Each structure stands twice: as C-alpha cells, then as structure tokens.
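Note to self: user wants both folds in one dump. Writing first protein now.
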Amino acid sequence: MKIHEKYILRCIQIAKNGLGSTFPNPMVGALIVHNNAIIGEGFTSPYGGSHAEVNAINSIKDKSVLKESTIYVTLEPCSHYGKTPPCADLIIKHKIPNIVIGLKDPHEKVAGNGIKKLRAAGCNVTIGVLEEECREHHNRFLCFYEKKRPYIILKWAETNDGFIAPLQEKRSATPEPFWITTKAARQLVHQWRSEEQGILVGTNTIIEDNPKLDVRNWHGKSPTRIIIDQNLKIDASKNILNTSVKTIVITKESNKNEQLQGIIYESVNFKKPLAMQICNILHKHNILSVIIEGGSKTLQTFINENLWDEARVFTGTTNFNKGIAAPKFTGKLKSTNTIKTDTLKTYYND
C-alpha cells in the first residue's frame, strides 16, 4: 500500500469517532506525519467545536516541527469563517509545507477555495488520495450538498416469511408489541439512531406502537423526529409530541388551527409525490441524514420515488403466516451479518 493511502485510511478510521455528533458539519479525520511517524491526530469535535485539523495540530506540543511535516485530511480544509476560523489559515500559520487531501469539499463556501488558499501560500497540495473511500465515508455530507437532500437509510425487520407486522385483528387481540428481532438487534437500532440526524415514521406507526424514537438503549443524542401525519390524527398523549426532542410534523395546509406549541409543522401537498417534498423540507432544516423506520407504506413511498441510499433489513426467525408484507425493492447487497439469531442485510441503491 502506498504511504499516502495508509495515512488517509487512518484518517477515515479516526474520523468515525465523530459519527452522530458533528452535524451539520462533516466528520473529518486528520493526522500529522513528521519523519515518517504520526505525531498528531484529530477528528471533528461536536458541532460548534474545533475541526479535525485544529485538533490534530493542537495535539502536538512542539509546534516547531510542523514546518517540516505533512498533514493528511479526509476532506479539503475549510477556507471561510463559520463557528470557527478557517483551517486553511491555521495550516498556513504553522507553515505546514505538505497537505494530502482525500476529497474536495462540495460546500459552496469551500469548493476548492481551501486548496487555492494553501497553494497560494506555497504549500504542496495533493488531492484525491483514496477518493472513493473518502466519498463513502462522507456520504451524508456529500449527499446533502450534491443532491440537495439528506442521506436516506431505510430500516425494517421482517419475519422469516416476509411480513413486517401482523394483521390488525391479531394486534387487537394481543396489544403487546410483536417483536420480530432479538434485544441485541433492537439495541443496534438505537446505536444507528444516535448516528443519524433525523428519524422518520408515519402516522400508523405512532398510533399502533407509540414509540419514543430515542436512544434510551444507547448513548448519544436522540435524532430529530419527523412524523408524517396528514390529518393530525396523533394526539398530544403520544410520546413523540412531548417536545423533549426537536420534532417536525409533515401535514397538510388546512391543519394550522390544530398545531401544538413546541412542535414544528410543515405542510405538503399529499396529492403530489411525497418523498421529494419531505426531502426538500429536511434540506431546509439542515438535516444531513435520516433513518426511516416507518411502516411498509412509508418505506415504499421513498422506494417508489427512488429516494433512498441505504437499506438495512433484519430477518427474524418467527413467522406470522399472514400480515403486512415487507417493502419491495431492488438494491446492491453490501453485507450480510448475524446478530444473535437475526440476519442483517445491508443494501446500497446503485
């Protein structure tokens, strides 16, 4: 393996420490090499904190060696003032002569300006090392700025015979939840929630299951809750309307008089394609990623409009014999894993 690639791989590895906490910033990884040895590392702090390059530079006590070093970073250093000063300026200030970048930043305030600033200062800049790997790592950030929508993850659990829920009469006879997967799989889902900026479900999921949509079985921040409720059937007693977490309700225009304080309401035209309208709303709210845990109808809505990037499908060992069928889709199988007695398959939309 080439030495640049080795160090960019390490940058990707440490960058994952920021997963779920950096939104709407990208989770960047950076490291500094001097005399063929890593002397400093850093990843993006939670939103409002220092960027990866700053943390890597600050991890080095003897700053005098920086003028003889190389800094590696997964994404182009920023060149503008935001919550923090430009990282490109800090690199120039410390006279770091060599910069190796995995991927150019598509953000309109950067978009090559960081590279231009570094080169204008006399730095030797290398771009595009492990670009595809860096693109995959930054898929949420790139989707938001290139496609103008959040990165969309579909998630559901289906029985061994292909159902995601029993029929209504069975639910009425036995009100308790019908768990398809094991506790281990359900805990993993809570971890996934902590890694994404939003979580989306439909009306029936709330009415039938009254979920909290939080990360109580994991550590981290609960995602913004997005609820599709065309006719505002969900009443204030449901868990998702308790205002403990930012909540956005997607509804129709005529419901303005029934809105609750502390909840954000966004209206759409339910006679037009719904998924794209929701994506536009989430883009407006700067939500870079969303995991969709709704029922079959909600999931199929995004599948039918081809507005999804990844699907995570659990298959349990139980059978319902009849019930609500799992969504129908086609995708490229990325991986197959076993979680206790459950099978987890992950697909990409190629």
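First done. Writing the second protein, which came from a different request thread.
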Amino acid sequence: MDEERAVRIIVTGRVQGVSYRWATEQEATRLGLDGWVRNEPDGSVLAYAVGPRDAVDALVAWCHEGPPAARVAGVDATDVDPREGVGREVREGGGFRTLG
C-alpha cells in the first residue's frame, strides 16, 4: 500500500487568469487526491493535497508546468502531517475542489 502524503503547494508566476485553479482541480481529481486550490492576493496559487505519495508527487510535478497558458516561475511544496491540521481538514472534506 502506498504511504499517504499531504502537501501545501505554493505556485508563483503567471498562474492567475489562465485556468490554473481549474486545471489543478482536474489533475488532482484524476489522481484521486483530496484537497483544495485557491488564488492568493499576491498573485500566487495555493493548494493543499492529500493522498497516496505517488499521486501527490505526480501533482507536484504537474504543478511545475500547469495548463498551457500558465508561466510557472516556482513551486514550493511543503509536507504537512496528513493526520493533523490542514491535512485532517482536507481529508474530512473529501474530494478536490476550487475555493474562491
């Protein structure tokens, strides 16, 4: 069985107004992850994802490219405990969704 991983992902660059959130939701759902994604006031995109390590790793790798119109400058993926805090809240919500 694949070990569970939870991450907070911050993506910078031209990632707002280019369907980045929608595409992230679609990719995370395809991978079977729980979590959410939203635009931040500073122009970045913030996401939390929880699921099997291989699937989370695949989403993080995908975030470096994003949808065709995006121009990703950076991706910061920080592990969080899937049993506590945001990881638990994401898992309790079930599925992957766009916020805001």
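Dump finished. Worth passing along: The radius of gyration is 12 Å.
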